[in-house]
Amino acid sequence: MPHNGLIRFIAPVGSVGGGISADALAEALVQPTDFIACDAGTTDAGPFSLGMGVPAFPREAVKRDLSLMLRAARKANIPVIVGSAGTAGGDVHVDGVLEIVREIVAEHKLKLRTAVIYSEQDKTYLKNLLKQSRIVPLSPALPISDNVIDRSSRIVGMMGVEPLQQAIADGADFILAGRCSDSALFAAIPVMRGFPPGLAWHAGKVSECGTLVCETLGKGVISTTVSHDQITIRPYGDGLRCTPQSVAAHGLYENADPFQHRECSGTLDLTNATFEAIDDVTVRIRGTEFFAEPVYTVKLEGAESVGYQSIIIGGIRDPYVIRQLDSWLGSVRNYIDDMVARVLADKADKSSYSLVFHTYGINGVMGKLEPEVKNLPHEVGIVLEATAPTQDMAHKLAELSRQPLLHYPIKEWSGSITAFACLHNPAVIDRGPVYRFNLNHVAVPSTPLEMFRTHFIDLCASGKSWS
Amino acid sequence: MVLADIANLIRSKNAGPFTLTFDIMFADFASYRRVKDSGALNPAAFAKLYRCPVEKVRFFECENALAFKFSIPRPLTQGELGDGDTHGGQQFIPLMNVEIP
Q1: Torsion of CA A26, A31, A35, A40, to 10 degrees
Q2: CA gap A357, B82 in Å, rounded
Q3: Where on the phi/psi map is residue A361: left (φ > 0), alpha (ψ -120 to 50), or beta?
Q4: What is the pTM of this model?
Q5: Between chains, do B62 and A248 touch, taking CB under 8 Å as contact?
Q6: Across-strand partners of A437?
Q7: Which of helix, strand or coil describes residue A139?
Q8: Are strands A380-388 and A421-422 parallel, antiparallel or unpaired?
Q9: More exposed terminus of chain B, fewer Cβ within 10 Å: N or C?
Q10: Is A251 on the interface with B (CB under 8 A)?
């Protein structure tokens, strides 16, 4: 629905499941709108979602937001684009969200020509790319080998605009995409309709977090209009304002570089962008550029198992222990290691498990970056994390750790001490599997589409295809 | 005066799993300018504060956002065993007490 050389889209919420304001969405949709887009994922939640294949948002919250978006969009006859489905965008995440969409379609008697775009990567394909030196490390460089690829639970590629554009060209009402650049969800249609790529991508960049681009975060939706020489962005929702500073500042959020943003096909460059107020709530952006890169790259995200974890939470109040905490915990650790060697020798050598003491009150939050380690507190919180190849092993490690934590002696007191206040009984909490990010690389595919698989499904109320 | 008295927001956050980024923001141009002119915020000062190599510190002055930005590699990858701040949100505190002459 192009009108007067403009394209207008709505970003209803920063992340599917975040809680769309239905009133603000309805108010924003009174004006002609070309599409709705929203991201549903992030690495910010940590590696567990990708590794384990589970979402980080409650299903009910995701269903509510998807339902609001899809019903509003069908009424207005405009497409909806959702990317990074199910937090991590793996195939299992996409399929989980697709199941929710099927329920919504059935409950609200919708008809939805759905393009499902999978972004999980075939390991043989990646190993072939690696062989051809078409997997390139980013900084900081992590090791990469066939082995790293094989032991990953899951690897996804972050798609650009091209697979989305193909799906729109093929008539999708709804795109459910795996891992995807957040900005690409919003830039895909404007770029394909010939709007300047700098403005199209920047419009996506400032809109993708929803009302986080406003002066103060609140309940509402973002409406963004792109023309051939400017972007205008405004919120709908009580008390919300976009100001030149708030919109400019959004370029900083969660980005290492506030001016240059690398996408698959090029670099969004905000160096010459200008921001000015049109009215109390609306900001105009001009001058943003986009420079096509000679090599098309797709960012990879991978997670691998670290094992299973059990923890003990407790605290120390004794000033004699606190003033020698480092060396005391060192002795406790040695004692545990010796016990493990004696008791579990056939099951665990020292290299197969890990014990981490988080010392809250000393440096539990900042770790190595903490500058104020000399000011001793009157109380220290301790979380012991025991990580091992099996849950059973991790549990036993933590169990073996309890006694030395309780009773390891100090020279200031004679006789038996109890130095550690356990929070729980039983003291050991099993945390289940633990994952780590294991890739910081880009892949160089032959075409922008080859890493992504698009399936069209015509969803309708009967639950079956109508075509 | 220290930076926390002048800035209206000092924050830290992950920029992806491998990078920590720090934003220092101001309510008005005069405050931004005052800190900029003081020269107190620079890669060497940040490197000292966070005990990391100066060549790893990226520093940006973002005048239209009335903000300064630092980015450094995370000491531990997000979620790595031992990482105590998954989102990186509580790493900015040493910046609060930077003296602004």
Answers
A1: -40
A2: 8
A3: left
A4: 0.95
A5: yes
A6: A303
A7: coil
A8: unpaired
A9: C
A10: yes
Q: Which of A315, A299, A286, A274 is nearest to B17 (CA)?
A: A299
CA atoms within 13 A on the CB side of A297: 20
Cβ pair B87:A244 closer than 8 A? no
Ranges under pLDDT 70 in chain A: 1-3, 463-467
d(CA A143, CA A467): 48
Helix (H) or strand (E) holding A316: strand A298-316
Is B36 an interface residue toward A (CB < 8 Å)? no
10 Å CB burial of residue A55 (0-12, 13-18, 19+) is buried
DSSP string, chain B: -BHHHH-SEEEEEESSTTEEEEEEE-SSHHHHHHHHHHT--SHHHHHHHTT--GGG-EEEEEGGGTEEEEEEE-SS-TTSTT---TT-TT--HHHHT-B--
Give contacts of A 65-94 with B, CB under 8 A.
Answer: none
Instruction: Calculate how close chain A gets to B75, using CA atoms only, in Å.
Output: 7
Taking contacts as CB-CB distances below 8 angstroms, the residues of chain A near B62 are 248-249, 251-252, 258-259
CB proximity list for A426: less than 8 A, separation 6 or greater: none
Tokens representing B46 are 């940040």
Cα A155 to Cα A451: distance, rounded to the nearest angstrom: 12
> SS3 for A275?
strand
Q: Which residue has the tokens 């000062």?
A: B45
8 Å CB contact between A139 and A280: no
**Residues A399-404: contacts with CB under 8 Å, at least 24 apart:** A399/A428, A400/A336, A400/A339, A400/A340, A400/A343, A400/A344, A401/A312, A401/A332, A401/A336, A401/A355, A402/A312, A402/A427, A402/A428, A404/A332, A404/A335, A404/A336, A404/A339
Of A44, A275, A306, the CB nearest to B87: A44
Q: Is the bond preceding A140 in cis, omega lying within 30 degrees of 0?
A: yes
| Cβ distance of B84 and A274 shorter than 8 Å | no
User: Mutate which of B18, B20, B31, B32 to test chain A, going by most A C-beta atoms within 10 A?
Assistant: B18
Residue A272 touches partner B, C-beta closer than 8 Å: no
The b/e string for A142-177 (b: 16+ C-beta within 10 A; e otherwise) is bebeeebbeebbbbbbbbbbbbbbbbbeeebbbbbb
Distance from CA of B4 to the nearest CA of A (A): 17
Q: Where are the alpha helices (H) located in A4-58, listed in sequence order?
A: 22-28, 48-52
Q: List, for residues B21-77, the tens digit of each pLDDT value.
A: 999 999 999 999 999 999 999 999 999 999 999 999 999 999 999 999 999 999 999
Identify from A252, A259, A301, A397 which residue to disrupt to test chain B contact, counting B C-beta atoms within 10 A and taking the largest count: A252
pLDDT at position A335, please?
97
A251·B62 Cβ contact <8 A: yes
Query: What pLDDT score does A3 carry?
Result: 58
A191 touching B (Cβ < 8 Å): no
pLDDT of residue A332: 98
User: Which of A46, A255, A369 has the CB atom closest to B21's CB atom?
Assistant: A255
Token couple for B2: 């220290």
CB A414: neighbour CB atoms within 10 A? 7
Nearest beta carbon to residue A356 from set B25, B62, B82? B82
